[in-house]
Amino acid sequence: MRIPGSAIVILGASGDLAKRKLIPALAVIFEQENLFDSSVIIGSGRTDFNDHDFRGKFDVHGKVKDILFYHKGISGLKRYIEQKGNFSRVIFFFALPPSVYSDTAKQLFEEGFRDEARLIIEKPFGYDYESAKTINHELHEYFHESQLFRIDHYLAKEAIQNILVFRFANSIFYPVWNSRYIKEIQINASEKIGVEERGSYFDRAGIIRDMVQNHLMQLLCLLTMEAPVSLDAEDIRIQKLNVLKVLSITDCMRYQYKGYREEPGIAPDSPTETYAELVLSINNFRWYNMPVYIRAGKALNRKGTEICILFKSLPRLLFNKSGGIKPNRIVFKIQPSEGIILDLSGKIPGSDFFISETKMKFCYHDVFGDVMQEAYQKLLLDALLGDRTLFVSAEETELSWEKIGQVLDSGSIEYYEKGTMPATHPLTDWIDFEDYETACG
Ligand code: BG6
After folding, report:
1. DSSP class of 286
2. Which one of 211, 260, 272, 334 would you pick to mutate in the ligand 1 pocket, going by the greatest count of ligand atoms within 8 A of its CB?
3. What's the pLDDT score for residue 438?
4. Domain architecture of the chain: domains with CATH
5. Which of 87, 151, 254, 261 is the right S-S partner for 7, CB 3.0 to 4.6 Å?
6. Cα atoms found within 13 Å of the Cα of residue 362, Cβ hemisphere only
7. pTM score > 0.85 for this model?
């Protein structure tokens, strides 16, 4: 067995996350890894439950219910776990608001948890650079960085992990992956939904904190970093940090959808952005003088996360004398319907050299069928194995906050209709990602 006997403790177990994501994901892991004789899952929270009532909350197999227990609060938890068995690892999942992270870590320490503990924590890791530093500092007072597993669920997406394989397991792309051949990179994260019932959280955050500072910056690092010497968490971390260190934001536009201020939990005069466009540059030899465009938003016309690597145009020679040949593009479809598409020019059959744009496609569904793993399943398994490769380090979060800091809450705000793409001052000629929608449908 790869996984040592573990007690997995969900702090905040009566909440929605445990029911929707964590327990179902753990149920699959327990089944796949056959952990029923060696490990237990303990829910903990402020509510009074007995084991029977707690188990009743979840729609999982009887075998899983048998290893599911409940303990109220943290006080007495250490002894409770010792009575359940001899576990070399105690994994705590913080399904809690970030405001109580530090205090909870302190309580766990005071309860006697030490090297055996691993803490899995969810974003947001702070609100800005200063608060991120404070949280990290407070957590480090009780637990070592190697015991902290900061989740960014984008890193668990197959199509995002595949960026590394695409870049570093295909020799043909290696020589062209730089600003000599690439004109620009576009990263797009569009959502159709608005803020729904998360208004009070979102209104304090805005889309730059919610999506760009974490998920999209991580994506950018994977796309542009140098090859790590191994897949170890530390080696990947070093390369991601090297990108973050030389990153600068050169422009930013902020927008808000009309009607946002009337939604529950939103201040009537809220200046929070629900859509943003940013221009970044990576000031190293590989990416010198090449812009990266990021846009993210809610209440837009479609849901889709895509990346476009836009190559430089051909010289005005031969087939391209009139400038009509479209530059090559590689589009990574992160979701939905994951895939990679390479736009090429091809000859239309016939006696003349008429050229048409064609798409070469790699669609996950066609190649691998429906085998996508649920993000929490992957992340929880990695945490149980002690593999921090897909988790975010303290330094990455701080540096990313530091860089994004210059555009937080600043500048004017423009407005857009719900269900449309804001288009008043686009920072680039955005690729029409809708063209790729059916490519891997
Ligand atoms: C979360 C944000 O981190 O990511 C949400 O807080 C957003 O606002 C979500 O909707 C998007 O995740 P996904 O996996 O649907 O792209």
Report:
1. T
2. 211
3. 85
4. 6-122 (3.40.50.720), 155-372+392-436 (3.30.360.10)
5. 87
6. 11
7. yes
